[in-house]
Amino acid sequence: SSSTAPDAGIDAEDLASFHEHLNKSTRVLALLGAGLSASSGLPTFRGAGGLWRTHDSVSLATPEAFNTDSSLVWQFYSYRRHMALQVQPNPAHYALAKLARKMPGFQALSQNVDGLSQRADHPPGQLQLLHGTLFEVRCMDRGRCGHSETNFVLQAKQQSKDLDISDVKVPLASVKTHDLPVCPKCKQYLLRPGVVWFGESLPEQVLDNVDKFMDAGGVDMIMVIGTSAKVYPAAGYIEDARAKGARVCVVNMDENDRPAGGWKKGDWFFKGDAATLVPRLLE
Ligand code: BV8
């Protein structure tokens, strides 16, 4: 009989064993990283995408960078906000949202701040934003003021829409600090992007939600999609899930990007573009 043509990147046997396990699963996690949004057109952190002008994105995603040069950091985030609103969720974002609607025991743990899962109508109760989102902005004075707002329109003044200021050849207008967004509530401190910077702790509520999920029983599977799994505590959830009985399914372009803690019998690795593979895996 004519066998179905094997999918690019998907071994038929692996696909069958994955589907068999998924169909028996009731409690599933997915750790999502920048690779999930790569096909939508957003650069990833590592590799070529990791550079913004001459800066390593990681070095800009810190409180120190913001205190040293709020203008540069706001221009970095303003550009990323602008970019994220220019692109669309891809089929993988939609497939994960569909899985959430079908499986109440599914939780997506997203490291991404691009808002694409939200725009794919992923049920908010099943989407844990581990590192916040570009579209929340909040007062620098978290203690006394604590103002926070959802905001899609704020632009760091300097940038005209068509300037690709990620290109180091494009001169970066110098934006004076007094041109940066000030908290509308206390009117004393700058607003900052509502993301978790390196050295900052993850949102209490989100940590609590994940702990509650883990404490509620075993975990049948964790999918690790488009992430280099190097940033903690996010990456730590992979081993936590394993400890609760989960099998691990990695979806990544790069076969070298496997979670720390090694490879276990029964794990799956599907090499390729998340936007193509994830819908096939979750169909
Ligand atoms: C914390 C939001 C402590 C901002 C991000 C020294 C000082 C302080 C802390 C530390 C330190 N040393 C270590 C730490 C801990 C640190 C950490 O883990 N550092 C790493 C670098 C070692 N962690 C922290 O600081 C965390 N906080 O520890 O606080 C604390 C505790 C209590 C009280 C006070 C403090 C906070 C970390 C959060 C940082 N914020 N993002 C922003 O976005 O600007 S992290 C950011 O980078 C992302 O959110 C993500 O988490 C990470 C990037 O990783 P990925 O998403 O995996 O993306 P990447 O580019 O790396 O990989 C893409 C992958 O996709 C690749 O594997 C590629 O092959 C694959 N791919 C590409 N295309 C595709 C694809 N796959 C499929 N399809 C494709 N098409």
Automatic annotation (TrEMBL):
Gene3D superfamilies according to UniProt: SIR2/SIRT2 'Small Domain (3.30.1600.10), TPP-binding domain (3.40.50.1220)
Keyword Nucleotidyltransferase: no
Keywords: Metal-binding, NAD, Transferase, Zinc
Residues at the active site: H131 (proton acceptor)
UniProt xrefs under InterPro entries: DHS-like_NAD/FAD-binding_dom, NAD-dep_sirtuin_deacylases, Sirtuin, Sirtuin_cat_small_dom_sf, Sirtuin_class_III, Ssirtuin_cat_dom
Domain of life according to the entry: Eukaryota
GO MF, one example: histone deacetylase activity, NAD-dependent
Deacetylase sirtuin-type domain ranges (all copies): 5-283
GO cellular component terms attached to this protein's record: nucleus
Keyword Zinc: yes
Binding site for Zn(2+): C139, C145, C183, C186
Family recorded in the similarity comment: Belongs to the sirtuin family. Class I subfamily.
Protein name: Deacetylase sirtuin-type domain-containing protein
Lineage summary: Eukaryota, Fungi, Dikarya, Ascomycota, Pezizomycotina
